[in-house]
Amino acid sequence: MHRKTLIIAEAGVNHNGDRARALALVEAAARAGADAVKFQSFRADKLATAGAAKASYQQATTGTAQSQLEMLRALELSPDDEEQIAAACVASKITYMSTPFDADSATHLVRRVGVSTLKVGSGDLTNAPLLLHLARFGLPIILSTGMGTLAEVELALGVIAFGYLREATAWPTPADFANLLLDRATWTELRAKVTLLHCTTEYPADPQSINLRAMATLRDAFGLPVGFSDHSRGIHIASAAVALGATVVEKHLTLDRNLPGPDHRASIEPDEMAAMIAAIRDVEAALGDGRKVPAPEEIPNRVVARRSLVVLQPVRAGERFTEDNLGVKRPGGGIPPIEYWSYLGKVALRDYAANEALEP
């Protein structure tokens, strides 16, 4: 039985701060067949300073007149918004997820909204205090690794493991985190709870920047489940990621790519999301179990497509079979061609007409 990839429709901030649009994104994700729809939980004043610059892609999509902090303030969802959106997810039978960007937002998601998994964005791969806070809840964590190195991922895993396995201490040190990774039991805990997402943090990301093989590098380096947070244009690279072993695929969803806002242009619309999910499900089914055996549908075609030993010209009883009068032709089901040489020189036990199948 083929494994099922967790497909997350990343609504992110594509609601533009509008609860009604957020609810419409929930409905669109559910109709498209996504397993989960994910938003972002933050308080702008806790996320950025007034002097924080916008990324170049944000400047291209939202202009330069507004600061990053001002942009983020316009994209906030209130705690009440989040609870209403989560309730809509229950009604639509789709899992609600959100990426928390600060400790208070994370606590609200866990204690009030009741999320079952925490997602960490690539920007917080090195945010050790937040990682520790998230791990203290004991929930599964999906960790995006965009902009990161293997060394930074390892440091993050040390912090997360410490949060899972050690009592709160006032001043944990980098050595505490690193030493914990030397314990084999730590990796058992991490394998059970942490999934690493390969990601290219650019919106949209060009194909030559994707480096899908790095997903396998993460899996080989840490032995954890891996997935892909897809910022590429279109839908085809996500299917390739699944073929390469992604257990999670995350893709930005918008109701309209022409809407104002930082992420709409790098997102896909609902019909494209549905097409991507259908393609992924086909890839999952096509992967199979890896055993090289005939598919049940192939068995009847063996007789049609394979060959058997046949007499090429009339042969009388007592004549010998030779390279001139013995050959292989369709249909199969008779003496297999591998026996060709063992019949050369043998005496025919009865008369054969041309193209008649040889009998044992």
TrEMBL record:
Q: Which EC number(s) does the record attach to this protein? A: 2.5.1.56
Cited SMART domains: SAF
SUPFAM superfamilies, alphabetically?
AFP III-like domain, Aldolase
Q: What class of enzyme is it?
A: transferase
Q: Which UniProt keywords apply?
A: Transferase
Domain of life according to the entry: Bacteria
Residues annotated as domain AFP-like: 308-360
Give one GO biological process term. Answer: carbohydrate biosynthetic process
One MF annotation (Gene Ontology) recorded for this entry: N-acylneuraminate-9-phosphate synthase activity
One matching Pfam family is SAF
Which PANTHER family does its entry note? N-ACETYLNEURAMINATE SYNTHASE, SIALIC ACID SYNTHASE
Q: What is this protein called?
A: N-acetylneuraminate synthase
Instruction: Give the species.
Output: Bradyrhizobium guangdongense
